[in-house]
């Protein structure tokens, strides 16, 4: 530790947080634009032969991003019932998924809620341990913090956006 | 500006840089694992009907990631000749692309070079302006810095990884 004159560390952290949240918002904007362009029929189609449908990708992203709420210690999942149909293998026997219109609504509501949580989280908190790394491991790998989860989930969403775009007609 | 006792700002920046580079490395590791698993025949196949091949995605990622070198002010592109075949529309008339074996080699060499550049870049430099934003805009939006380019390009790579995985046999 040293004493020195510098910009407040919090201001630097806030800049990092803004970079990560901006990239998440950018991916959300792209995803939303595509979802609103595709018809329900297109969204119900497989993105490639024998691959997941647009509806599954939407449900999967809700379930995975909703999982950030407990993982970051922000609260409880909004839609725990989406885990069974949308995490792991698609079309599990005996598991039913909500209709598309409901999923679209849940996606919007989840993003409103996540934005609220993210805005309210103090800068220092973003650099603390998330709930799937042990205190011992975190002491050794402090880059595996809460903000890192959001970087990771943004990449996960980009991965599926690359698949969803296959439902769009070629220009 | 305030004087206060705190961790060195450089240490905070270094942690954040590590987060971003680790995520880039994670996406590279996943991409490399998939590329080495797929046969040349699979890679030459369209990822979905009437969509890009694995070879095009590989060439495209080399061309785009290579573009980070001048954009970040690190030097000249290694493979400027890949811009014509792999940026913009695929299969442009009169444009030929190098064979797959050569692309695989260029991908590896590019990642070695990028790793060298990224490791050598001082922490403070990562938070400076990149070459496609004006000084005026950067003054207003300091989060659009060099490190932000790497976050963005990592998401771009994830997007195409989600497509490339469609060449893999279903488990």
Annotation keywords:
homodimer; 171 residues; mainly alpha; 61% helix
Question: Cα-atom Rg of chain A, whole angstroms?
Answer: 18 Å
Distance between the termini of chain A: 57 Å
How do the helices and strands follow one another from N- to C-terminus of chain A? Answer: EHHHHHHHHH
Largest interface: A-B, 44 and 44 residues
Helix residue percentage of chain A: 55-70%
Mean pLDDT of chain A: 93
Q: What is the element layout, followed by pairings?
A:
The structure is a homodimer of 171-residue chains.
Chain A: E1 2-6, H1 9-37, H2 40-43, H3 54-66, H4 68-71, H5 83-86, H6 100-120, H7 123-126, H8 135-140, H9 146-164
Description of the structure:
The structure is a homodimer of 171-residue chains. Chain A is mainly α and 171 residues long. Chain A has nine helices and one strand. Residues 1-6 of chain A have low confidence and may be disordered. The A-B interface holds A 1-9, 12-13, 15-16, 18-20, 22-23, 26-27, 47-51, 127, 142-143, 145, 147-148, 151-152, 154-156, 158-163, 166, 170 and B 1-9, 12-13, 15-16, 18-20, 22-23, 26-27, 47-51, 127, 142-143, 145, 147-148, 151-152, 154-156, 158-163, 166, 170. Strand 1 of chain A pairs antiparallel with strand 1 of chain B.
What's the gist of this structure?
The structure is a homodimer of 171-residue chains. With 171 residues, the first copy, chain A, is mainly alpha-helical.
